[in-house]
Specification:
9 helices; transmembrane helix; mainly alpha; DedA family protein
Length: 163
């Protein structure tokens, strides 16, 4: 198992593959798997400052496509979630989301709740393309904000990673 994990990490090494690795990490981190793509984006930009905008765009597209997958998973899971549809907190959350509509997907950038929010938007059968557009805006704003903040706080790179 350790050998397989080491080979996967070597395959996804940022200096070797760059933007393609960032895309994969961003896509996976937008699914319901607990993973963050900001460190990968920051690391790639610190190694290649001239890739700032391409890297932000690749991360945004990968993360948005992952959010779109979440939407489709939620859309297909409607029957499974129905069995919990009568709890008070569930009904309040659904009411709030229905009131906001696709604009709720602007919050797809939030840790912990953002990715499930995309799935719930699909489960509620909110319009796919407006939800995607709001996801894209929210995720793009997150990457610009987080990367800018990391570059400001750690101008020489993250401690222990060189730079």
């Amino acid at each position: 198992m350790q050998e397989w994990l080491d080979s996967m990490l070597a395959l996804l090494a940022l200096p070797r593959f760059g933007l393609s690795t960032l895309f994969i990490v961003s896509f996976i981190s937008a699914t319901l798997l607990p993973m963050g793509s900001e460190p990968a984006l920051f690391g790639l930009i610190k190694l290649n400052p001239d890739l700032f905008w391409p890297a932000v765009l690749v991360a945004t597209v990968g993360n948005t496509l992952g959010g779109m997958l979440d939407w489709w998973l939620g859309y297909g899971a409607h029957q499974v979630v129905d069995k919990w549809g009568h709890s008070r907190s569930h009904l309040k959350a659904i009411e709030w989301l229905e009131r906001l509509g696709p604009k709720a997907c602007l919050l797809a950038w939030l840790p912990v709740v953002g990715d499930p929010l995309c799935a719930v938007a699909g489960w509620l059968r909110m319009p796919f393309w407006p939800c995607t557009a709001y996801m894209l805006v929210g995720k793009f704003a997150r990457y610009i904000t987080m990367t800018g903040a990391l570059m400001w706080v750690f101008p020489g790179g993250l401690p222990g990673l060189g730079g």
